[in-house]
Design brief:
25% helix, six-stranded parallel β-sheet, Rossmann fold, 15 strands, single chain, Quinone Oxidoreductase, Chain A, domain 1
């Protein structure tokens, strides 16, 4: 087992869009677990848009990272040393750990991953937090009905792609918004979306009207900004708007002004509600079981964009803001089953 441990630290807080100066790659001594702790070797780590908020020194739903300290991520890893009764060496687990080769975790904070059920990487994507966000956000907040028109922004991402497929399974007509022709083809040709809009090339407002002639009954918003403005102008009466993410605004140095939609909400008697998946923690098992069944029977398909090597983790994170990923963006740090 390696005696050293590579780890990414937050070097400085970004002013606007983050760049490589915000990250520091350090080498430290491999940690040793204490009582009730385990040592986890990272196999895959997740990079997600919400992490941009953790780079700020501002109150939010996720605690800010401390400058000079390691950053955290959702991790799937293999236990290599255990001082906790529930875990043995070789167990595969999922938890919120560090951007590092190895991390210490309290045993009770980890969840087991069954490597025989699906590739272990899926515990960070289609069988993990993003898919649970899609599940509860659409079904509980969006409340789709058969025949509804559902529009999803960020539709080729880890959350949006699952939202669209669950909506189709619920008998809805689904329109996705994404940022490349490759993504548009994936949505319509492979995932079965009824229509898709390329927000970089199309007139989004005109295309929303064309694709949703009877209005938008459910809008699942992952991006905010001009895309959302265009969709809000075409809501149906009693529409439901699910606010999951606002990635188009995360790097804004000042809060942008734009269309104010309260008048539309009155006219359409529409409802807008935000979604944080942790509010549904007591129902994770329900979501996990249904998602696993849908993945196994082909109802829900998925893709992963995997960046190889811990040293490239910031590159993978920064690429999220250019929409470089299709499906879940992961960083592979080690190969499952390889000897250390």
């Amino acid at each position: 087992m390696a005696e050293t441990n590579r780890v990414w630290l937050l070097a400085q807080r970004p002013d606007g869009r983050p760049d490589m100066d915000c990250f520091e790659f350090a080498e430290r001594q491999r940690p040793v677990p204490g009582d009730g702790e385990v040592l986890v070797r990272t196999l895959y780590m997740s990079v997600d848009p919400y992490m941009r908020g953790r780079m700020r020194d501002a109150e939010s739903y996720a605690e800010p990272w401390t400058v000079g300290e390691p950053m955290q991520a959702g991790v799937v890893g293999e236990i290599v040393a255990s001082n906790h009764h529930a875990w043995e060496e070789g167990d595969v687990v999922n938890g919120n750990l560090r951007w590092a080769d190895y991390a210490i975790a309290k045993g009770h904070e980890l969840v087991g991953v069954n490597p025989d059920l699906a590739p272990v990487s899926t515990a960070l994507g289609v069988l993990g937090m993003p898919a649970r966000t899609a599940y509860f956000g659409l079904l509980d907040v969006g409340d789709p009905k058969p025949g509804d028109t559902v529009v999803v922004s960020g539709a080729a991402g880890a959350v949006g792609s699952v939202v669209g497929q669950i909506a189709r399974h619920a008998g809805c007509r689904v329109v996705g918004v994404a940022g490349s022709e490759e993504k548009i083809s994936w949505l319509t040709d492979e995932l079965g979306f009824d229509a898709a809009i390329n927000y970089k090339d199309d007139d989004v407002r005109a295309r929303v009207r064309e694709a949703c002639p009877d209005g938008v009954d459910v809008y699942f918003d992952n991006v905010g900004g001009p895309v959302t403005d265009a969709v809000m102008d075409n809501l149906s009466v009693r529409a439901r708007v699910v606010i999951c993410g606002q990635i188009s605004l995360y790097n804004a140095q000042e809060r942008p002004t734009g269309p104010r939609h309260f008048g539309t909400l009155i006219q359409k008697r529409a409802r807008v509600e935000g979604i944080l998946v942790r509010d549904y923690e007591d129902r994770y098992e329900e979501a996990n079981e249904r998602l696993a069944r849908w993945v196994n029977d082909g109802t829900v398909q998925y893709r992963e964009t995997v960046t190889d090597g811990l040293e490239r983790a910031p590159e993978a994170f920064l690429g999220l803001f250019d929409g470089e990923n299709i499906g879940k963006q992961l960083v592979q740090v080690a190969e499952y089953g390889d000897e250390e």
